[in-house]
Amino acid sequence: MSSESPLSDEMSKKISLFGLTDVKLWVLVCFVVGIFVVLVLFILYVWVAFRRKTRRSSQKFLPFSQIPRMAKDIRVDDRVGFQNHSENLCTDKPSDRNSGKMMAYLGRTKSSDNDSISQCSSVHHHERAYSSHSGEEGSFGAAWRQGSLVTASPLVGLPEISHLGWGHWFTLRDLQLATNRFAPENVIGEGGYGVVYKGTLINGNDVAVKKLLNNLGQAEKEFRVEVEAIGHVRHKNLVRLLGYCIEGVHRMLVYEYVNSGNLEQWLHGDLGEHSTLTWEARMKILTGTAQALAYLHEAIEPKVIHRDIKASNILIDDEFNAKLSDFGLAKLLDSGESHITTRVMGTFGYVAPEYANTGLLNEKSDIYSFGVLLLEAITGRDPVDYERPANEVNLVEWLKMMVGTRRAEEVVDPKIEPKPATRALKRALLVALRCLDPDSEKRPKMSQVVRMLESDDQLFREERRNRKSRTASMEIVEALEESSKRPEHSKNHTTKPELTHE
Protein backbone atom coordinates (compact mmCIF):
# COMPACT_ATOMS: atom_id res chain seq x y z
CA MET A 1 0.00 0.00 0.00
CA SER A 2 2.91 2.30 0.80
CA SER A 3 4.24 1.98 -2.81
CA GLU A 4 0.86 2.82 -4.40
CA SER A 5 0.14 5.80 -2.19
CA PRO A 6 2.69 8.17 -3.82
CA LEU A 7 1.39 7.26 -7.32
CA SER A 8 -2.18 7.77 -6.26
CA ASP A 9 -1.31 11.06 -4.63
CA GLU A 10 0.57 12.15 -7.76
CA MET A 11 -2.36 11.29 -10.10
CA SER A 12 -4.76 13.11 -7.81
CA LYS A 13 -2.85 16.35 -7.98
CA LYS A 14 -4.75 19.26 -9.46
CA ILE A 15 -3.29 21.15 -12.39
CA SER A 16 -4.28 24.00 -14.73
CA LEU A 17 -5.13 23.17 -18.36
CA PHE A 18 -6.25 25.66 -21.03
CA GLY A 19 -7.44 28.09 -18.38
CA LEU A 20 -9.20 25.40 -16.37
CA THR A 21 -8.14 24.98 -12.77
CA ASP A 22 -8.55 22.12 -10.38
CA VAL A 23 -8.17 19.50 -13.20
CA LYS A 24 -6.79 16.28 -11.83
CA LEU A 25 -3.81 14.67 -13.59
CA TRP A 26 -5.57 11.32 -14.19
CA VAL A 27 -8.33 13.11 -16.07
CA LEU A 28 -5.75 14.64 -18.39
CA VAL A 29 -4.13 11.25 -19.00
CA CYS A 30 -7.50 9.65 -19.86
CA PHE A 31 -8.28 12.52 -22.22
CA VAL A 32 -5.03 12.10 -24.16
CA VAL A 33 -5.44 8.31 -24.40
CA GLY A 34 -9.00 8.76 -25.69
CA ILE A 35 -7.87 11.15 -28.41
CA PHE A 36 -5.18 8.67 -29.48
CA VAL A 37 -7.71 5.78 -29.73
CA VAL A 38 -10.12 7.90 -31.77
CA LEU A 39 -7.33 8.91 -34.12
CA VAL A 40 -6.30 5.27 -34.69
CA LEU A 41 -9.91 4.24 -35.39
CA PHE A 42 -10.32 7.10 -37.87
CA ILE A 43 -7.19 6.05 -39.77
CA LEU A 44 -8.47 2.46 -39.93
CA TYR A 45 -11.84 3.64 -41.24
CA VAL A 46 -10.24 5.68 -44.01
CA TRP A 47 -8.05 2.73 -45.04
CA VAL A 48 -10.98 0.28 -45.16
CA ALA A 49 -13.11 2.72 -47.18
CA PHE A 50 -10.28 3.19 -49.67
CA ARG A 51 -9.87 -0.58 -50.05
CA ARG A 52 -13.58 -1.06 -50.68
CA LYS A 53 -13.66 1.66 -53.30
CA THR A 54 -10.65 0.16 -55.10
CA ARG A 55 -12.17 -3.32 -55.07
CA ARG A 56 -15.54 -2.07 -56.35
CA SER A 57 -13.96 -0.24 -59.26
CA SER A 58 -11.88 -3.27 -60.24
CA GLN A 59 -14.94 -5.53 -60.56
CA LYS A 60 -15.64 -4.12 -63.99
CA PHE A 61 -12.43 -5.67 -65.31
CA LEU A 62 -12.60 -9.19 -63.94
CA PRO A 63 -11.12 -11.89 -66.19
CA PHE A 64 -13.65 -13.73 -68.31
CA SER A 65 -13.01 -17.06 -66.63
CA GLN A 66 -13.98 -15.82 -63.16
CA ILE A 67 -17.35 -16.97 -61.90
CA PRO A 68 -19.11 -14.70 -59.40
CA ARG A 69 -19.19 -15.66 -55.77
CA MET A 70 -22.56 -17.27 -55.25
CA ALA A 71 -24.91 -16.38 -52.45
CA LYS A 72 -25.11 -18.89 -49.63
CA ASP A 73 -28.86 -19.24 -50.12
CA ILE A 74 -28.34 -22.12 -52.58
CA ARG A 75 -26.35 -25.13 -51.53
CA VAL A 76 -24.49 -27.00 -54.24
CA ASP A 77 -25.49 -30.64 -54.00
CA ASP A 78 -23.79 -33.44 -55.91
CA ARG A 79 -26.91 -35.57 -55.91
CA VAL A 80 -28.20 -36.14 -59.39
CA GLY A 81 -31.76 -36.27 -60.62
CA PHE A 82 -33.12 -37.34 -63.99
CA GLN A 83 -33.78 -34.44 -66.33
CA ASN A 84 -35.94 -34.53 -69.39
CA HIS A 85 -34.42 -32.43 -72.14
CA SER A 86 -37.02 -33.27 -74.73
CA GLU A 87 -38.29 -29.70 -74.66
CA ASN A 88 -36.16 -27.02 -76.27
CA LEU A 89 -35.37 -24.12 -73.98
CA CYS A 90 -34.72 -21.17 -76.26
CA THR A 91 -36.93 -21.47 -79.31
CA ASP A 92 -40.30 -20.59 -80.61
CA LYS A 93 -42.20 -21.52 -83.72
CA PRO A 94 -41.56 -19.35 -86.77
CA SER A 95 -43.44 -16.06 -86.68
CA ASP A 96 -45.72 -15.01 -89.49
CA ARG A 97 -43.34 -12.15 -90.14
CA ASN A 98 -40.55 -14.51 -91.11
CA SER A 99 -42.62 -17.29 -92.66
CA GLY A 100 -42.53 -15.84 -96.16
CA LYS A 101 -38.78 -15.50 -96.08
CA MET A 102 -38.34 -18.98 -94.69
CA MET A 103 -40.67 -20.62 -97.21
CA ALA A 104 -38.88 -18.88 -100.05
CA TYR A 105 -35.67 -20.48 -98.84
CA LEU A 106 -37.14 -23.98 -99.00
CA GLY A 107 -37.41 -23.89 -102.75
CA ARG A 108 -33.91 -22.81 -103.59
CA THR A 109 -30.33 -23.80 -102.89
CA LYS A 110 -27.94 -21.67 -100.88
CA SER A 111 -24.29 -22.35 -100.41
CA SER A 112 -23.20 -22.92 -96.84
CA ASP A 113 -21.48 -20.07 -95.06
CA ASN A 114 -17.79 -20.16 -94.18
CA ASP A 115 -16.92 -20.68 -90.54
CA SER A 116 -16.74 -17.46 -88.65
CA ILE A 117 -16.54 -16.14 -85.18
CA SER A 118 -19.18 -13.54 -84.51
CA GLN A 119 -17.56 -10.34 -83.30
CA CYS A 120 -20.10 -8.43 -81.27
CA SER A 121 -20.28 -4.66 -81.77
CA SER A 122 -21.37 -3.49 -78.35
CA VAL A 123 -21.03 -0.14 -76.69
CA HIS A 124 -19.72 -1.95 -73.65
CA HIS A 125 -15.94 -2.13 -73.38
CA HIS A 126 -16.13 -5.61 -71.86
CA GLU A 127 -18.15 -6.83 -74.85
CA ARG A 128 -15.46 -5.56 -77.20
CA ALA A 129 -12.77 -7.21 -75.14
CA TYR A 130 -14.54 -10.50 -75.35
CA SER A 131 -15.06 -10.29 -79.07
CA SER A 132 -11.34 -9.80 -79.57
CA HIS A 133 -10.54 -12.71 -77.28
CA SER A 134 -12.84 -15.05 -79.17
CA GLY A 135 -10.76 -14.51 -82.29
CA GLU A 136 -7.64 -15.87 -80.60
CA GLU A 137 -8.47 -19.51 -80.98
CA GLY A 138 -5.35 -20.81 -82.66
CA SER A 139 -4.52 -22.05 -86.11
CA PHE A 140 -7.81 -23.86 -86.62
CA GLY A 141 -9.91 -20.80 -85.83
CA ALA A 142 -7.65 -18.56 -87.92
CA ALA A 143 -9.15 -20.00 -91.07
CA TRP A 144 -12.61 -18.91 -89.93
CA ARG A 145 -11.71 -15.28 -89.32
CA GLN A 146 -11.57 -14.58 -93.05
CA GLY A 147 -15.35 -14.63 -93.24
CA SER A 148 -16.08 -13.33 -89.75
CA LEU A 149 -19.56 -11.98 -89.20
CA VAL A 150 -20.08 -8.69 -87.39
CA THR A 151 -23.43 -8.49 -85.61
CA ALA A 152 -24.97 -5.76 -83.52
CA SER A 153 -25.23 -6.59 -79.84
CA PRO A 154 -28.75 -6.84 -78.34
CA LEU A 155 -27.23 -5.11 -75.30
CA VAL A 156 -26.72 -1.79 -77.08
CA GLY A 157 -28.47 0.97 -75.17
CA LEU A 158 -28.52 -0.80 -71.80
CA PRO A 159 -26.66 0.64 -68.79
CA GLU A 160 -22.99 -0.30 -68.62
CA ILE A 161 -22.79 -2.65 -65.65
CA SER A 162 -21.25 -6.09 -65.32
CA HIS A 163 -20.02 -8.26 -62.47
CA LEU A 164 -18.27 -10.84 -64.65
CA GLY A 165 -16.41 -8.72 -67.16
CA TRP A 166 -18.62 -9.95 -70.03
CA GLY A 167 -22.23 -9.67 -71.02
CA HIS A 168 -24.66 -7.79 -68.83
CA TRP A 169 -25.74 -8.11 -65.22
CA PHE A 170 -29.52 -7.93 -65.06
CA THR A 171 -31.45 -7.27 -61.88
CA LEU A 172 -34.48 -9.34 -60.99
CA ARG A 173 -36.64 -6.30 -61.67
CA ASP A 174 -35.14 -5.93 -65.16
CA LEU A 175 -36.17 -9.46 -66.09
CA GLN A 176 -39.57 -9.19 -64.43
CA LEU A 177 -40.31 -6.17 -66.59
CA ALA A 178 -38.97 -7.93 -69.71
CA THR A 179 -41.16 -11.01 -69.21
CA ASN A 180 -44.25 -9.31 -67.75
CA ARG A 181 -43.41 -10.78 -64.33
CA PHE A 182 -42.70 -14.19 -65.91
CA ALA A 183 -46.19 -14.48 -67.31
CA PRO A 184 -47.30 -18.00 -68.36
CA GLU A 185 -48.06 -16.80 -71.88
CA ASN A 186 -44.38 -15.93 -72.32
CA VAL A 187 -43.17 -19.47 -71.61
CA ILE A 188 -41.36 -20.88 -74.67
CA GLY A 189 -39.75 -23.97 -73.15
CA GLU A 190 -39.47 -26.07 -70.01
CA GLY A 191 -36.90 -28.51 -68.72
CA GLY A 192 -36.09 -30.42 -65.57
CA TYR A 193 -34.15 -27.54 -64.04
CA GLY A 194 -35.82 -24.46 -65.37
CA VAL A 195 -38.33 -22.59 -67.48
CA VAL A 196 -37.51 -20.32 -70.42
CA TYR A 197 -39.47 -17.17 -71.11
CA LYS A 198 -39.51 -14.84 -74.05
CA GLY A 199 -38.72 -11.31 -72.93
CA THR A 200 -38.27 -7.85 -74.40
CA LEU A 201 -35.55 -5.60 -72.99
CA ILE A 202 -36.03 -1.88 -72.46
CA ASN A 203 -34.09 -1.25 -75.69
CA GLY A 204 -36.69 -3.25 -77.63
CA ASN A 205 -34.61 -6.38 -78.32
CA ASP A 206 -36.10 -9.83 -77.71
CA VAL A 207 -34.28 -12.29 -75.47
CA ALA A 208 -34.82 -15.75 -74.00
CA VAL A 209 -34.66 -15.79 -70.19
CA LYS A 210 -33.81 -19.15 -68.64
CA LYS A 211 -35.01 -19.20 -65.04
CA LEU A 212 -33.26 -22.02 -63.21
CA LEU A 213 -35.14 -23.86 -60.49
CA ASN A 214 -33.49 -24.54 -57.14
CA ASN A 215 -33.62 -28.33 -57.31
CA LEU A 216 -31.31 -29.32 -54.44
CA GLY A 217 -28.57 -27.01 -55.65
CA GLN A 218 -28.79 -28.09 -59.30
CA ALA A 219 -29.64 -24.53 -60.33
CA GLU A 220 -26.33 -23.35 -58.93
CA LYS A 221 -24.43 -26.12 -60.70
CA GLU A 222 -26.12 -25.58 -64.07
CA PHE A 223 -25.58 -21.83 -63.78
CA ARG A 224 -21.87 -22.34 -63.24
CA VAL A 225 -21.59 -24.90 -66.06
CA GLU A 226 -23.23 -22.70 -68.68
CA VAL A 227 -21.28 -19.61 -67.68
CA GLU A 228 -17.98 -21.50 -67.73
CA ALA A 229 -18.78 -23.22 -71.03
CA ILE A 230 -20.08 -20.40 -73.23
CA GLY A 231 -19.96 -17.19 -71.22
CA HIS A 232 -16.76 -16.06 -72.95
CA VAL A 233 -17.07 -17.56 -76.44
CA ARG A 234 -18.48 -16.04 -79.61
CA HIS A 235 -19.37 -18.04 -82.71
CA LYS A 236 -22.15 -17.56 -85.23
CA ASN A 237 -23.36 -21.16 -84.72
CA LEU A 238 -23.52 -20.98 -80.91
CA VAL A 239 -26.52 -19.47 -79.18
CA ARG A 240 -25.16 -16.37 -77.51
CA LEU A 241 -25.29 -15.99 -73.74
CA LEU A 242 -25.96 -12.28 -73.25
CA GLY A 243 -26.03 -11.97 -69.47
CA TYR A 244 -27.22 -13.26 -66.15
CA CYS A 245 -29.04 -12.46 -62.93
CA ILE A 246 -27.77 -13.39 -59.46
CA GLU A 247 -30.12 -12.10 -56.81
CA GLY A 248 -30.95 -13.96 -53.60
CA VAL A 249 -31.89 -17.51 -54.55
CA HIS A 250 -32.58 -16.50 -58.15
CA ARG A 251 -30.26 -17.73 -60.91
CA MET A 252 -31.18 -16.70 -64.44
CA LEU A 253 -29.40 -16.73 -67.80
CA VAL A 254 -30.28 -14.43 -70.68
CA TYR A 255 -29.74 -15.62 -74.28
CA GLU A 256 -30.30 -14.22 -77.71
CA TYR A 257 -33.78 -15.06 -78.92
CA VAL A 258 -34.05 -17.48 -81.86
CA ASN A 259 -37.56 -17.45 -83.26
CA SER A 260 -37.51 -19.99 -86.11
CA GLY A 261 -37.86 -23.21 -84.15
CA ASN A 262 -35.41 -26.05 -83.70
CA LEU A 263 -34.38 -28.95 -85.89
CA GLU A 264 -36.62 -31.43 -84.08
CA GLN A 265 -39.67 -29.28 -84.79
CA TRP A 266 -38.73 -29.01 -88.45
CA LEU A 267 -38.05 -32.74 -88.87
CA HIS A 268 -40.80 -34.25 -86.72
CA GLY A 269 -43.18 -31.46 -85.75
CA ASP A 270 -45.82 -29.46 -87.56
CA LEU A 271 -44.67 -25.97 -88.46
CA GLY A 272 -47.12 -25.42 -91.26
CA GLU A 273 -48.19 -26.79 -94.62
CA HIS A 274 -44.89 -25.94 -96.34
CA SER A 275 -42.50 -26.66 -93.47
CA THR A 276 -40.39 -29.42 -95.00
CA LEU A 277 -36.70 -28.64 -95.09
CA THR A 278 -34.97 -29.04 -98.42
CA TRP A 279 -31.82 -31.15 -98.67
CA GLU A 280 -29.74 -28.00 -99.01
CA ALA A 281 -31.29 -26.47 -95.89
CA ARG A 282 -30.62 -29.64 -93.88
CA MET A 283 -27.01 -29.78 -94.96
CA LYS A 284 -26.53 -26.09 -94.15
CA ILE A 285 -27.91 -26.68 -90.64
CA LEU A 286 -25.76 -29.77 -90.10
CA THR A 287 -22.64 -28.04 -91.44
CA GLY A 288 -23.22 -25.11 -89.10
CA THR A 289 -23.62 -27.50 -86.17
CA ALA A 290 -20.37 -29.23 -87.13
CA GLN A 291 -18.63 -25.84 -87.27
CA ALA A 292 -19.83 -25.01 -83.77
CA LEU A 293 -18.59 -28.34 -82.40
CA ALA A 294 -15.26 -27.98 -84.18
CA TYR A 295 -14.85 -24.58 -82.51
CA LEU A 296 -15.70 -25.98 -79.05
CA HIS A 297 -13.45 -29.04 -79.47
CA GLU A 298 -10.44 -27.61 -81.26
CA ALA A 299 -10.30 -23.82 -81.16
CA ILE A 300 -10.63 -22.90 -77.49
CA GLU A 301 -8.92 -23.94 -74.28
CA PRO A 302 -10.17 -25.74 -72.31
CA LYS A 303 -12.23 -27.59 -74.90
CA VAL A 304 -15.96 -27.91 -74.28
CA ILE A 305 -17.74 -31.28 -74.51
CA HIS A 306 -21.43 -30.59 -75.02
CA ARG A 307 -22.75 -34.05 -74.01
CA ASP A 308 -26.30 -33.47 -75.26
CA ILE A 309 -26.16 -33.09 -79.03
CA LYS A 310 -29.68 -33.72 -80.34
CA ALA A 311 -32.19 -32.21 -82.76
CA SER A 312 -34.08 -30.16 -80.16
CA ASN A 313 -30.85 -28.41 -79.12
CA ILE A 314 -30.15 -27.16 -82.66
CA LEU A 315 -31.93 -23.82 -82.96
CA ILE A 316 -32.55 -22.35 -86.41
CA ASP A 317 -32.70 -18.68 -87.36
CA ASP A 318 -34.65 -17.22 -90.26
CA GLU A 319 -31.67 -17.73 -92.60
CA PHE A 320 -31.45 -21.43 -91.67
CA ASN A 321 -28.23 -21.01 -89.73
CA ALA A 322 -27.78 -23.49 -86.90
CA LYS A 323 -27.43 -22.26 -83.30
CA LEU A 324 -26.18 -24.92 -80.88
CA SER A 325 -27.81 -24.43 -77.47
CA ASP A 326 -28.33 -25.88 -73.98
CA PHE A 327 -24.94 -26.31 -72.33
CA GLY A 328 -26.30 -27.41 -68.96
CA LEU A 329 -24.58 -30.80 -69.22
CA ALA A 330 -21.33 -29.56 -70.76
CA LYS A 331 -17.92 -30.56 -69.42
CA LEU A 332 -14.58 -28.80 -69.82
CA LEU A 333 -11.55 -30.85 -70.87
CA ASP A 334 -8.00 -29.49 -70.54
CA SER A 335 -5.47 -30.10 -73.30
CA GLY A 336 -3.51 -32.55 -71.12
CA GLU A 337 -6.55 -34.75 -70.52
CA SER A 338 -7.52 -37.49 -72.95
CA HIS A 339 -10.85 -38.05 -71.24
CA ILE A 340 -12.72 -37.57 -67.99
CA THR A 341 -14.83 -40.04 -66.05
CA THR A 342 -18.34 -38.90 -65.27
CA ARG A 343 -21.86 -40.15 -64.86
CA VAL A 344 -23.57 -41.22 -68.08
CA MET A 345 -25.86 -38.43 -69.16
CA GLY A 346 -27.48 -37.37 -72.38
CA THR A 347 -30.53 -38.23 -74.43
CA PHE A 348 -31.59 -41.77 -75.23
CA GLY A 349 -30.58 -42.70 -78.78
CA TYR A 350 -27.71 -40.22 -79.11
CA VAL A 351 -25.23 -41.48 -76.47
CA ALA A 352 -21.96 -43.00 -77.69
CA PRO A 353 -21.60 -46.70 -76.82
CA GLU A 354 -18.20 -46.41 -75.10
CA TYR A 355 -19.49 -43.56 -72.94
CA ALA A 356 -22.65 -45.47 -72.03
CA ASN A 357 -20.61 -48.54 -71.05
CA THR A 358 -17.66 -46.98 -69.21
CA GLY A 359 -18.48 -43.36 -68.36
CA LEU A 360 -15.29 -42.25 -70.13
CA LEU A 361 -16.04 -38.96 -71.86
CA ASN A 362 -14.20 -36.92 -74.48
CA GLU A 363 -15.00 -35.08 -77.71
CA LYS A 364 -15.50 -38.39 -79.56
CA SER A 365 -18.78 -38.80 -77.67
CA ASP A 366 -20.09 -35.57 -79.22
CA ILE A 367 -18.93 -36.78 -82.64
CA TYR A 368 -20.96 -39.98 -82.28
CA SER A 369 -24.04 -37.95 -81.30
CA PHE A 370 -23.49 -35.75 -84.35
CA GLY A 371 -23.45 -38.87 -86.53
CA VAL A 372 -26.87 -39.87 -85.18
CA LEU A 373 -28.10 -36.31 -85.76
CA LEU A 374 -26.88 -36.41 -89.36
CA LEU A 375 -28.73 -39.67 -90.01
CA GLU A 376 -31.85 -38.19 -88.43
CA ALA A 377 -31.69 -35.23 -90.81
CA ILE A 378 -31.16 -37.48 -93.84
CA THR A 379 -33.92 -39.96 -93.05
CA GLY A 380 -36.42 -37.84 -91.13
CA ARG A 381 -36.64 -40.65 -88.55
CA ASP A 382 -36.21 -40.56 -84.78
CA PRO A 383 -33.05 -42.26 -83.45
CA VAL A 384 -35.25 -44.81 -81.68
CA ASP A 385 -38.85 -45.34 -82.77
CA TYR A 386 -40.75 -48.21 -81.16
CA GLU A 387 -43.73 -47.71 -83.46
CA ARG A 388 -41.74 -49.09 -86.40
CA PRO A 389 -41.08 -52.78 -87.18
CA ALA A 390 -38.53 -54.50 -84.95
CA ASN A 391 -35.71 -54.29 -87.50
CA GLU A 392 -36.31 -50.55 -87.96
CA VAL A 393 -36.59 -49.44 -84.34
CA ASN A 394 -32.94 -48.47 -84.10
CA LEU A 395 -32.02 -45.87 -86.73
CA VAL A 396 -28.31 -46.68 -86.84
CA GLU A 397 -28.78 -50.43 -87.21
CA TRP A 398 -31.51 -49.99 -89.82
CA LEU A 399 -29.32 -47.63 -91.82
CA LYS A 400 -26.40 -50.08 -91.81
CA MET A 401 -28.74 -52.84 -92.98
CA MET A 402 -30.02 -50.69 -95.85
CA VAL A 403 -26.50 -49.75 -96.94
CA GLY A 404 -25.35 -53.37 -96.71
CA THR A 405 -28.15 -54.46 -99.05
CA ARG A 406 -27.36 -51.64 -101.52
CA ARG A 407 -30.58 -49.78 -100.76
CA ALA A 408 -28.95 -46.57 -99.53
CA GLU A 409 -31.05 -44.34 -101.77
CA GLU A 410 -34.22 -45.60 -100.07
CA VAL A 411 -33.29 -44.11 -96.69
CA VAL A 412 -33.90 -40.50 -97.74
CA ASP A 413 -36.78 -38.72 -96.02
CA PRO A 414 -39.70 -39.07 -98.47
CA LYS A 415 -40.75 -35.50 -97.68
CA ILE A 416 -37.61 -34.05 -99.28
CA GLU A 417 -38.27 -32.56 -102.72
CA PRO A 418 -36.32 -32.53 -104.92
CA LYS A 419 -34.34 -35.60 -103.99
CA PRO A 420 -30.63 -35.12 -103.34
CA ALA A 421 -28.07 -36.16 -105.92
CA THR A 422 -26.72 -39.67 -105.43
CA ARG A 423 -23.22 -38.32 -104.97
CA ALA A 424 -24.34 -35.87 -102.23
CA LEU A 425 -26.37 -38.55 -100.44
CA LYS A 426 -23.52 -41.06 -100.39
CA ARG A 427 -21.14 -38.40 -99.15
CA ALA A 428 -23.46 -37.52 -96.26
CA LEU A 429 -24.04 -41.17 -95.37
CA LEU A 430 -20.32 -41.88 -95.39
CA VAL A 431 -19.66 -38.93 -93.06
CA ALA A 432 -22.39 -40.14 -90.71
CA LEU A 433 -21.07 -43.72 -90.60
CA ARG A 434 -17.54 -42.51 -89.95
CA CYS A 435 -18.82 -40.51 -86.99
CA LEU A 436 -20.66 -43.62 -85.77
CA ASP A 437 -17.63 -45.90 -85.90
CA PRO A 438 -17.78 -48.27 -82.87
CA ASP A 439 -14.07 -47.60 -82.36
CA SER A 440 -13.99 -44.04 -81.04
CA GLU A 441 -10.36 -43.57 -82.11
CA LYS A 442 -11.35 -44.05 -85.77
CA ARG A 443 -13.95 -41.30 -85.71
CA PRO A 444 -12.85 -38.12 -87.52
CA LYS A 445 -12.31 -34.80 -85.81
CA MET A 446 -15.11 -32.28 -86.21
CA SER A 447 -12.87 -30.06 -88.35
CA GLN A 448 -12.51 -33.01 -90.76
CA VAL A 449 -16.28 -33.51 -90.69
CA VAL A 450 -16.76 -29.85 -91.64
CA ARG A 451 -14.42 -30.20 -94.60
CA MET A 452 -16.10 -33.40 -95.78
CA LEU A 453 -19.55 -31.84 -95.59
CA GLU A 454 -18.44 -28.71 -97.40
CA SER A 455 -16.42 -30.24 -100.21
CA ASP A 456 -16.96 -33.17 -102.56
CA ASP A 457 -13.37 -33.04 -103.70
CA GLN A 458 -11.89 -33.33 -100.23
CA LEU A 459 -13.81 -36.53 -99.52
CA PHE A 460 -12.91 -38.15 -102.80
CA ARG A 461 -9.22 -37.21 -102.47
CA GLU A 462 -9.12 -38.98 -99.12
CA GLU A 463 -10.85 -42.04 -100.56
CA ARG A 464 -8.48 -42.18 -103.56
CA ARG A 465 -5.46 -42.09 -101.27
CA ASN A 466 -6.84 -45.17 -99.50
CA ARG A 467 -7.80 -47.11 -102.62
CA LYS A 468 -6.08 -45.63 -105.67
CA SER A 469 -7.12 -48.40 -108.04
CA ARG A 470 -10.86 -47.86 -107.59
CA THR A 471 -13.13 -45.23 -109.08
CA ALA A 472 -14.51 -42.58 -106.78
CA SER A 473 -18.12 -43.78 -106.89
CA MET A 474 -17.19 -47.42 -106.15
CA GLU A 475 -14.95 -46.33 -103.28
CA ILE A 476 -17.84 -44.60 -101.49
CA VAL A 477 -20.16 -47.58 -101.90
CA GLU A 478 -17.55 -49.97 -100.55
CA ALA A 479 -16.74 -47.65 -97.63
CA LEU A 480 -20.41 -47.59 -96.72
CA GLU A 481 -20.60 -51.37 -96.93
CA GLU A 482 -17.52 -51.78 -94.74
CA SER A 483 -19.05 -49.54 -92.09
CA SER A 484 -22.29 -51.53 -92.14
CA LYS A 485 -20.44 -54.86 -91.71
CA ARG A 486 -18.40 -53.83 -88.68
CA PRO A 487 -19.18 -55.54 -85.37
CA GLU A 488 -22.34 -54.21 -83.83
CA HIS A 489 -21.81 -51.53 -81.31
CA SER A 490 -23.21 -51.39 -77.81
CA LYS A 491 -26.85 -52.14 -77.15
CA ASN A 492 -27.02 -48.49 -76.20
CA HIS A 493 -29.87 -47.91 -78.65
CA THR A 494 -31.84 -51.09 -78.24
CA THR A 495 -31.61 -51.45 -74.48
CA LYS A 496 -32.37 -48.17 -72.83
CA PRO A 497 -29.48 -47.12 -70.54
CA GLU A 498 -29.96 -45.28 -67.31
CA LEU A 499 -29.31 -41.69 -68.32
CA THR A 500 -29.22 -39.07 -65.66
CA HIS A 501 -28.42 -35.40 -65.45
CA GLU A 502 -26.12 -33.69 -63.02
UniProtKB/TrEMBL annotation:
Pfam families: Pkinase
Residues annotated as domain Protein kinase: 182-460
Residue numbers annotated as active site: 308
Enzyme Commission number: 2.7.11.1
Topology versus the membrane: Single-pass membrane protein
Transmembrane segments: 25-50
GO molecular function, one term: protein serine/threonine kinase activity
Start and end residues of each stretch annotated as Disordered: 461-502
UniProt biased composition (Basic and acidic residues): 482-502
Predominant location category: membrane
Catalytic activity field: L-threonyl-[protein] + ATP = O-phospho-L-threonyl-[protein] + ADP + H(+); L-seryl-[protein] + ATP = O-phospho-L-seryl-[protein] + ADP + H(+)
Entry keyword set: ATP-binding, Kinase, Magnesium, Membrane, Metal-binding, Nucleotide-binding, Phosphoprotein, Serine/threonine-protein kinase, Transferase, Transmembrane, Transmembrane helix
Binding site for ATP: 211
Protein localization: Membrane
Root EC class: transferase
UniProt: Mg(2+) binding residues: 313, 326
Keyword 4Fe-4S set for record: no
GO cellular component: membrane
Protein's recorded name: non-specific serine/threonine protein kinase
Gene designation: LOC108862635
